[in-house]
Design a protein that fits this description.
Largest sheet: 7 strands, mixed
CATH architecture: Alpha-Beta Complex
Strand content: 25-35%
Distance between the termini: 10 Å
CATH topology: Maf protein
CATH class: Alpha Beta
Number of domains: 1
């Protein structure tokens, strides 16, 4: 089986490649010569994932899966949510995003949050979605050097370390993208 993972984010690609069974040949957008920015204009995490998977199928003809992820902070009524990647502006800078979030939570004791990933699979003309959620909290300062995005300020429930302080294997076991990927893999194993 051959599938495109519709992302230009090399960190996401590395995470997902470590989870996909060897029998599935995973192609990147670079592998199929897709260089344009794929639209993410639906206003929801689910809708954006579906939009990206459908785009690759429609314009490139490949079976495809795509994900979209949002960090939902209770004290901010679910924000940044669908705007997670560009929370501090269109430059999509992780440090700017974390600094803005830490600043907005500065005077807040409630720091509960969750990461939510939705994977949309467009396979043989059928659309399936898989959702992974990791509950946790936002730390008061950045901790750790690994991971990407908001990893240095997110601690999963039951953990004292941030996502940026734990191994990729551990993150894949407990994290939102890993949970959604496990559901996708279970589905593909039954195809």
């Amino acid at each position: 089986m051959q599938l495109v993972f519709a992302t230009n984010n090399q960190n996401k690609l590395k995470e997902v490649q470590s989870l996909v069974p060897k029998r599935i040949k995973l192609l990147s957008l670079k592998d199929i010569n897709c260089t344009e920015e794929i639209p993410e204009t639906t206003g929801t995490i689910e809708g954006n994932a579906q939009q990206k998977a459908d785009y690759i199928k429609e314009y490139y003809g490949y079976d495809c899966f795509a994900d979209d992820t949002g960090l939902e902070v209770d004290a901010l009524d679910g924000q940044p949510g669908v705007d997670t990647a560009h929370y501090a502006g269109p430059q999509r800078n992780a440090n700017d995003n974390m600094n803005k979030l830490l600043s907005e939570l500065e005077d807040t004791t409630s720091r509960k949050a969750q990461f939510k990933t939705v994977i949309a699979l467009n396979l043989n003309g059928q659309l399936e979605t898989f959702t992974g959620i990791c509950k946790g909290e936002i730390t008061t300062k950045k901790q750790g050097n690994d991971g990407f995005g908001y990893d240095p300020i997110f601690k999963a429930e039951g953990y004292e370390q941030t996502f940026a302080e734990i191994s990729l294997d551990e993150k894949n076991k407990i994290g939102h993208r890993g949970k959604a990927m496990q559901l996708l893999i279970e589905f593909l194993n039954n195809c």
